[in-house]
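User: structure tokens for this one?
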Amino acid sequence: MWKTVILLIITIIVIPYFSFYLDESPTELQKSTLISLAWVYVASAAYCFIVSTITKNYSQVDKFWSVIPMVYAWMACHYGNYEPRLILMAVLVSIWGIRLTLNFTRRGGFTWKFWEGEEDYRWAILRAKPEFQSPIRWMIFNLLFISYYQMGLILLFTIPIVRSMDGTPLGIFDYVIAAVFILLVVMETIADQQQYDYQTEKYRRINNNEPLEGNYKKGFVDTGLWSKSRHPNYFAEQSIWIVFYLFSGIASGNWLNWSIMGCVLLVILFYNSSVFSEEISAGKYPEYKEYQKKVPRFIPFTKW
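Assistant:
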């Protein structure tokens, strides 16, 4: 686990370096916008670290995941004097953010006591590992990875809107990309709903001492979109931000620019997250390993 954490921290240093090397330097407007967004990031990450340390609820970043990209997007839109492309991008981020916030809320992620709410079950499993038994080690992990790395990643996958400032006029390809973005949000919504329906019914039966039959006996959802991909919601989420990056290519004329680092790092994070999640599922559900053999991890209709 520590090797993975160190690798992720290195990537968030190395990838930005090469991304800036391959592209032209940010303009003065882009620099001032990035600085403003960076201050929000530093304050937000510090908040997540302090609150999670005090409350022992380590899902504070999860509460920001769907909300703060909207803040970043509209801040960039404001700094960019509300250019048409920036407005379109900010609206798309808002559609994504509102949808994800509602989904997180119904799962108990938000409560009126803002520091509470459902904690991702994986943090408890991770804390129980031998390498994290030391409180100091866990605090360092919380500071560097949970708080600052993840919050930094959120900023990075949003900054294509900054790279799109002072770009070419809004055109047909922007609307095509916007349509694909919306379709991916719809896909993620369907996947989340199928997962929610399955888990709700499974636990209703468990709580009422009813027998788990059919697919509920397996313990995991493998129908609908989940029969085509083991993580259709993850696939859609990664694809959303890859598509979002394409706006910066259209705006700048440079398809390999410094705002690519966010979506690349997001793919790396989701891959490692899926590995950890599947280790847990394979240990809990006897049929999960067979499911892994038959259904691709992310991309439907492939072996990938």
